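Severity: low
Component: inverse-folding endpoint
Summary: output formatting inconsistent between runs
Steps to reproduce: submit the following structure tokens with default settings.
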């Protein structure tokens, strides 16, 4: 694919138009375009809108697994060249072990009440890793781990609120190491362009 004659603006516009063609309005907003990419890989159906309303059955999810009837929330992270060593857990140059596993953090803007956290515990959670905007890894994160970490984050927010300190309700998060089989399972891996 020859991209030399295209500007970044033209490429972004093409992505916007392709997303719109597939029924995703404002598809380039807030990395929304990664959701249909992950849904296609996983065989799910991505929601058209960026955010389902709080009273919607889709609330807190980005897609539906039609096979199981389960909603799914997607989180994604773009990695740099320097983070490949962590993703692949390459050997250290000094010969003393390997680099630590890549940790991916997902921010849950809607997880600021115990009711919302409970709703998140009823859906599936997938964290995707993108390199040069190609999806290279997706892990399915254990629901109870998501609930545990979001509840801990909520408790910290509550402690600050009760103490009269500044706090925000839109950055509750879950962080997992990509190789931690006790809390996540690899469901997709495409390392062919990374291992050269």
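Observed output (run 2 of 3):
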């Amino acid at each position: 694919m020859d991209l030399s004659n295209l500007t970044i603006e033209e490429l972004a516009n093409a992505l916007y138009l392709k997303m719109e063609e597939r029924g995703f309005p404002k598809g380039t907003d807030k990395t929304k375009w990664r959701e249909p990419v992950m849904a296609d890989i996983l065989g799910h159906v991505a929601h058209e809108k960026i955010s389902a309303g709080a009273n919607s059955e889709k609330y807190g999810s980005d897609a539906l697994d039609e096979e199981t009837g389960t909603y799914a929330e997607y989180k994604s992270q773009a990695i740099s060249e320097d983070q490949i060593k962590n993703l692949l857990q390459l050997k250290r140059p000094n010969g003393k072990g390997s680099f630590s596993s890549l940790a991916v953090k997902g921010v849950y803007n809607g997880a600021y009440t115990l009711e919302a956290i409970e709703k998140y515990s009823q859906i599936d959670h997938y964290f995707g890793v993108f390199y040069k905007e190609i999806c290279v890894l997706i892990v399915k994160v254990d629901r109870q781990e998501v609930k545990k970490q979001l509840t801990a984050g909520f408790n910290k927010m509550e402690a600050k609120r009760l103490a009269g300190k500044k706090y925000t309700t839109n950055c509750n998060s879950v962080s997992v190491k990509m190789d931690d089989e006790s809390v996540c399972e690899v469901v997709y891996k495409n390392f062919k362009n990374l291992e050269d």
